[in-house]
Design goal:
This protein is α/β, with parallel strands linked by helices. The protein is built from two helices and five strands. The strands form two sheets. A three-stranded parallel sheet has the order 1-2-5. The protein has a two-stranded antiparallel sheet with strand order 3-4. β1, α1 and β2 form a beta-alpha-beta unit. It starts with a strand and ends in a 10-residue tail after the last strand. The mean pLDDT is about 90.
């Protein structure tokens, strides 16, 4: 499934987008914050789990919604 998350650079968008990507979905995060988008693209998302582990999830991010691939 292809999914775009608006506000993806924030806490809630990041966690939803990260978990959706980790489950195998094609996710792109969209945010207005260029530093947040750059950090996500450079370092991935780190989500601290209940057990204390901190997996890094690679998810593409952009500030330009028109750049999200809409092809099927």
């Amino acid at each position: 499934m292809r999914i775009a998350i608006l506000g993806g650079g924030g806490a809630m968008g990041g966690i939803f987008g990260g978990y959706l990507a980790r489950a195998g979905n094609d996710v792109t995060l969209i945010d207005v914050s260029k530093p947040a988008v750059q950090a996500i693209n450079d370092n991935g998302l780190t989500i601290e789990e209940k057990d204390g582990s901190r997996p890094v999830i690679r998810v593409p991010a952009t500030t330009e919604p028109s750049k999200v691939d809409r092809s099927t």
